[in-house]
Amino acid sequence: MSLGKGSRGYLAEINVTPFVDVMLVLLIIFMVTAPMLTQGVDVDLPKTRSVRTLPAGSDHLVLSVKKDGGIFLDEYNVPFEDLRQHLQNLVVAQRKQLYLRADKDVAYGVVVKVMGEIKSVGIEKLGIVAESSDDDTAKPKTPAQ
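User: That's the sequence. What structure does it adopt?
Assistant: Structure tokens below.
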């Protein structure tokens, strides 16, 4: 504020520089962290013709089985021995939908063991995630249930 020479009194001016500085810092933080949030576990999915887009939102969890047999619930590594407890706490108790993503090179027996654990917990509806065979660059999709 400054005092004018005439009878106008005080002159009020808003300094927006600190506001712009804070907004630019927040924008940079968002631009750096946003790609990290969508990463997840790298799995080479099998391809199929009939698929739908995987639903967005937080009402579902994705169980991934990597080529080396590693099991991940969303992006967190879960030992097979603890899988039943994690599924009970995170999927059944919170009534979330579960989707299974298995690498196309994973042994059939490993996938069957994981599906057996899922069934033993009481999960009746399980979505299987695959990629569209029409488009090699398609995002992960799930078949119609």
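The chain has three helices and eleven strands.
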